[in-house]
């Protein structure tokens, strides 16, 4: 058979006319050489590996993410492994318009021309391919395929199945006959709000599993971060009320994320620093730009660093609601002996705060004690709890801190504006 027409085809752009012409040639060749084809092997083609993140950046492909322990970058995300394909998750930014993948096919034939069609047979897919023509393909070479279609517009974890229909015309038509191969591959992916930020600039798949589940369906940073904060507050941890010590990193910049993930959902002690780091880590994984902030007390009474006196709060976990966090009685007559020496939380660039450590009382008597300005009083009971989410810094501090307090029956301290008594400090964090 004269191969010149195929050589010319390989130099042409794969326009609609070319694709139709190639299809006709496929049919013609099988009819013309039917006597040979019946005695030879039909070409089989199947996906061997698929890369969703195959180049630097994410303008044309998926984001770079790491495995569940933050170690290895996941590429390729799908690979054929006999009867049990290996499939790893990948991630895109919501509504990302330009998407391509790279795939390589295994075949019983070395060299061939291909027409590739790719459709979504179930689930919420990331795109399709219609009549991609690949001339002079050599088995196990990589092909770049541009995807058509839209991505979801909200945070989430979604799964789908692709059906691959690949028509192959062998160059060696004396031993192989053209044929269509149909195969399916299954995938799971995350959609994020924006490019992930430090300390999750290359997010861990284990972090995205939680973050995209907790914030599922959210399409704004406010909504997604608030959902993260609520889920962390309800995650099973309890407040370390002996002295407020951190459980997952002793320094401001350290976060023992693997340990935190291992304990998530169980009853382990945490403090505000642990939970603030967690909010920053999980929210920044889907593109938020939160920082770790803390309010540090400069109040010292009689040489004792008792810290800021608090209004009535409901700490994370089973710790009883209190306005005397580290001492007893929990509420009593407001003659408290302790408060927060510092308090950490997550904060954005507009000075709005998310706090997964506690809820505070929003009723007319936020410290839950009557006649406490300035003297001791009686426990009033009652509460109207609110978890601080997207709260302006000044409003947050006003609800959290009791401005009138008597320490050890010595004298009264009026903080007025909480800034008069302390300072803010913002730190980056790293995870390990």
Q: Could you characterize what this model shows?
A:
This protein is of the alpha+beta class and 432 residues long. The protein folds into 2 domains: 4-192; 205-431, no CATH class. The chain has 8 helices and 26 strands. The strands form 8 sheets. It has a 5-stranded antiparallel β-sheet, with no helix packed on it. Strands 5-12-10-7-8 form a 5-stranded mixed β-sheet. A 5-stranded antiparallel β-sheet has the order 22-19-18-16-25. α4 packs across α7 and α5 (221-233) packs antiparallel against α7 (272-285). It is elongated and about 100 Å long. Residues 1-39, 300-304 and 405-422 have low confidence and may be disordered.
Explain the layout of strands and helices.
Elements: H1 4-9, H2 16-32, H3 34-37, E1 41-42, E2 45-51, E3 78-79, E4 86-87, E5 90-93, E6 100-107, E7 111-123, E8 129-138, E9 142-146, E10 156-170, E11 176-177, E12 179-192, H4 205-214, H5 221-233, E13 238-239, E14 254-255, H6 257-263, E15 269-270, H7 272-285, E16 291-297, E17 313-315, E18 342-347, E19 352-354, E20 358-361, E21 385-386, E22 389-392, H8 393-400, E23 404-407, E24 411-414, E25 422-427, E26 430-431
Parallel strand pairs: 1-11, 5-12, 13-15, 14-26
Antiparallel strand pairs: 2-3, 2-6, 3-4, 6-9, 7-8, 7-10, 10-12, 16-18, 16-25, 17-20, 18-19, 19-22, 20-21, 23-24
